[in-house]
Amino acid sequence: MCFSWGQCVSRISVRNYTVLTLKTDQTVWGWGSGGIYGGNGDWFSRSPLQLNTGSFQNIFVGDDAVFVLDNVNNLWANGSNQYGSFGNGNTSSGYYNFEALGNYPGLKSLTSGLYFGALIKGDGSLWTWGYNNSYQVGDDTTTPRLSPVHIGSDTNW
After folding, report:
1. Which of 1, 60, 76, 150 lies 20 to 30 Å (CA to CA) from residue 11?
2. Are the C-beta atoms of 59 and 13 separated by less than 8 Å?
């Protein structure tokens, strides 16, 4: 039983102007600006707002997008998808709805910067995507990558 809102939070992730929480009931809540749609016509929420329905196991906040992993390992993103920030093969905005990105069983880690991201899959392989103007994707090019690119052959990242 939770006696206050804060006691019900199992995970919290922050970056810039965004706070994302995963509550013990497996719901995702967010506030601030920069990656969440507040439902008030703006790209922010002044107080905690439930962001998606369903049951979730993890949350990740990046510079321009937020990511949530549901209990059946589907990854979802919300926020700016400029330059392919979501890694879903396009640059369509995801401000108003969470965009499905695929199934990632055993996802070990996910992080994102401004217009790019990286994750380590359950098999230990490293994947990156996004703008890539400064080699941040790590594929020895400056070619933007709208979909995840497998980096190296190691499986122990």
Report:
1. 150
2. yes
Q: Are 67 and 129 in contact (CB under 8 A)?
A: no
For residue 38, give both structure tokens. Answer: 């507040």
DSSP letters spanning 63-82:
SSEEEEEETTSEEEEEE--G
Report the distance separating Cα 42 and Cα 45, nearest Å.
8
Decide if 9 contacts 24 (C-beta within 8 A): yes
Ramachandran bin of 41, using left for φ above 0, alpha for ψ from -120 to 50, beta for the remaining angles: left
Dump pLDDT digits (tens) for 38-87.
Answer: 444 455 677 888 887 789 999 998 888 889 999 999 999 988 888 999 99
